[in-house]
Amino acid sequence: MRLVIFGIGYIVITCLCLFIIICAIAAITGLVNVMPYFDNGIAIAVILIVIIALALFVAVSIANMIKPWVTFRRRNKIDLVEVTRNECPKLFDVLESLSRETKVRMPRHVYLDVSTNACVVFRSAFGFVFFQRMDSLLIGLGAFKCMKVGEVKAMLAHEFGHNGMKSLAAIEIAEGKILKLMNSDDCIDRIIARWRRVSSMPLRLLCVVACLLRAWANRCICLFYPFIMRGLSRVSCAREFEADAIACHCVGSKMCISSVCKVQHFACCYENHLLMTLLNNMLNDGNVPEDYFSAYDMIVSEMRKKGWCTIEVTDTLTEAFHPFFKAESRIKVNVEDPWRTHPDLQERIELASSLSISRDAEEQESAWNLIPDEITKKVSDRLFEKIAVESGRKLEVISTAELKGRVEKMFAEQVFSGKISEFFDRYFEKFELEKAFETSILENPFTAEYRSEIAKLNTARADMVVLNNFRDGMIKSPTLSYDGVEYRRKDVPIDIHQKYLDGLIASVREKDSAMCSYLCHIGSEVDCSRARDLYETLARLEEICGNMDGRLKDHDEYINKCFASGKTIKGQRYKELCLRIVAVEKALQQGIIAVKESIPDVIEQNELGERLINYTTDQHNFGFEYGPRSFAELQNYRKMFAEMCRKYHRHCRLCLAQIADAYR
User: Fold this and answer.
1) CA distance 626 to 607
2) Do 202 and 58 share a domain, yes or no?
């Protein structure tokens, strides 16, 4: 209904604008023809200027409304590989069987890339709002290694289900056009940009007027955006449920649930995070692996050696694989997001379970067999070609042996053992270090209860962020559910949750202290001494960084407030801003010096480390005059120093984890 209202208003306003332009052209023509018969030419000229201004105003408005439907740029497909039946016969067998089952025509183009999901692309021209057809199907191969053919079929059936819904294309196209109305870079924008560079002053003044009118038109669309998008979001969620139902009818509820869970996992899994870390490190050195998917296989192999649980092809999931979704870390806060376009994973699982559709023949073969090796290599090569084009430099391909060495080095230096990662891959709660050193605990502290308390604490902290955002109005929802009870904005249960959070912090702090005592008294004297040194180093580093952050907090709030206002900063306020920026610089320099003197290993022995040390010897921002370039440099050095501290903190925790793994 909201989309219909917007569509009717859209058409009415466009027609009205066209009518006004026609009237303006007629008026201008008439006035020009009768001007010789009037003595007062100035009056006629003024009338002409007013009419031309009105016509320009309306023309810019209508141009902004029509321009999203006219595009002269094709989508850049440099990262995609188009495949045909001759190249991927098994994949097209699956697609054609789904086309018959869903009674939906085959897509005109099928593309492959390294992403972990699939999506359907519709033609976005005006006529395709009423006569939709699936133009392209994009299939990501990122999850194929660990999915069955039946699970991939469920993922693709979901996309075919979207194409079978005549309203979905209109929703997708409308959403894209509304966004393009508000924020775009099209032919009209480029014409105006060139117009502003003309030498004629009158034409440049007209350009300024056109820009103001264009900004006005965009502002009007922005006012409509929340009204339209809330309705589109609800419809989109409903259509996702319908597409899941179609997938269940094609492959069965069991296979559909497993497919949804695996796609959800691979969208943000630790394997992909490590792979991206590896590739980024290699790109910094100007290298790429021979094959993207081989690098992924090496990452998974090393993870299994480290004791990490990874998904196998034979696994059929019935719930989310990520531990964050387990019952022991259940989220207490539930708030409806009016902008979400997809249902929650649990809602999709419940829908598929409620349908209880079973299929006799479940295809258990690995989905990786659907794609020939030469095609996967082509997809990998296309990705690295895109990276080379975007980076503007030639990348050197390294051998499989060198890649394996890089992977092993990364795991040795950065990755915790999967069996104890929850205990060490975080910042410890602050406890009395001397007391922990004096207390002798020989009982193994790495229990399921300890792991559960950490998971609950992480979830409780995330819930507190949601509660604060809801109270501050950053979440646009009238009510919030906490432990099954509805609350309004004025009575958010922050105090209740804070007590719960404080109890968890105290519990985890006690267990962190017990773990410290255990590591400092178990095993050889060398390991115990090393554990004490590591805990003392962590304490000193946290103290220095904590003191520096405490000194910077007030200054940062003031500086951010000044810059966020968007107003010209002058007078006494400008002097205060300069003094605070100088204070931030001094606090940073003192923090760097304190770390260098107390824990010299934090500062890396490379070019970045030398630059950081050299930064402490000069003053770059002065009392009543600071330069934006110097301030940006200050922010960059802050990020650099924070990253070095974070990396060294993680290194210390990794060393503690290695000691713990030996005596756990």
Assistant:
1) 26
2) yes
